[in-house]
Amino acid sequence: MAMASGLSLATSRQVTHHSFAQSFQRPFLRMQKTRRLSNLSRQLLASAAGVGAYGACHAMRQRRSFAVACAAEEATAPEAFPPAVIVGGGRLGEAFAKMGLRQDVIVRRGETFPSDAPEGPIYVCTRNDALEEVIRMVPEERHEDLVFVQNGVLMPFLDRQLRPGLPVTILLVYFAVAKKGEPPLDGKTDTDPEGLSAVNAGGKWAREVHWRLTSSDLACRILRDMEFKQAYWEKNLWISAYMMVDELIGQLAVAVSASQADVTWERLLLCDRLAAYARSVAHFPTAVKEFEWRNGAFYEMSKAAEAAGRPDPCLKHTEGLRTLKVI
Q1: Would you call 288 helix, strand, or coil by DSSP?
Q2: CA distances from residue 260 to 251, 264, 304 in whole angstroms, order as listed
Q3: What is the pLDDT of residues 56-104, one digit of tens each?
Q4: Which of 27, 228, 283, 318 is the 20 to 30 A CA-CA neighbour of 12?
Q5: How far apart are CA 307 and CA 117, in angstroms?
Q6: Half-sphere exposure (CA, 13 Å, Cβ side) for 283?
Q7: In whole angstroms, what is the distance from residue 166 CA to residue 164 CA?
Q8: Among 37, 33, 65, CA closest to 194
């Protein structure tokens, strides 16, 4: 994977429809966002001031990110950036549009890239399987303006699809938009209360991405190549491992609800609640034991479904038990 060129990639920008907001809104929105710019400085100064429980290495990493972020903040203001094109009008695309000054252009599914598109970043806010089509749609001379916000190991794909050395921007998104139109929920954690979202410093529009997020009260770190590379793989470790866990929890919950009609869950809240509890007992050793009292109940549901000629409702659980040679 050509990391030297890959690290200039930025996360996807979604393009909005040709609906420019009333021009009289811009001064107020600009003032509102400019006032928020100082928030990041205070947060980063606070996190860089002391080592605390995270250790010297963490503090050094924060100071490096702090220096890059502060340089970006001091050098930029809303008027420094042209409007963006946002490709995709779903939850994420609409969220990125609302973070701007209401002058961005959204390109929705089935629409072509506008010939008079603004010269700012091009946020690609689509599913991964639409990326190749989006890249074909965008004129080649505008490829360096692409900002990618998708999850997943994007680097090999982008190395194949784009010219070497393009300063494309990649955003590691650590915020969630539960429903279209709702404000993003920042993914700040007990170990990283300053936030985890990050953009590659080599991306052409890294400073614009940083401004767009931080002026909307969302965290954003600007990371140099090696820091970004580690953060990129860490995000992919999480999405690959924990999505399997969430799918397993989801399957077990559905199986329970199918056999106990009065037991229902909202899946996202269920996974969040169980993850929070797991953090609270992180010191506790894990093992599959007392099978008949624990996992055995779910395995009985699988056997009942098989006997009735139905698909296994707890397939991942059954596969896991076989891998561990429990059954």
Answers
A1: coil
A2: 14, 8, 14
A3: 444 444 444 544 555 455 545 667 899 999 999 999 999 999 999 999 9
A4: 27
A5: 59
A6: 1
A7: 6
A8: 65
What pLDDT was estimated at residue 244? 81
Residue bearing tokens 């010269």: 119
In 17-168, alpha helices (H): 25-36, 38-49, 55-75, 91-99, 131-137, 155-161
Q: What is the DSSP letter of 154?
A: -
Is residue 120 within 8 Å of 146, Cβ to Cβ?
no
Residue type, 133: E
**pLDDT reading at 170 higher than 60:** yes
Helix axes 25-36, 38-49, angle to 10 degrees: 10
User: Quick one: angle between helices 206-214 and 55-75, nearest 10?
Assistant: 100
Q: Closest Cα to residue 121, out of 169, 70, 72?
A: 169
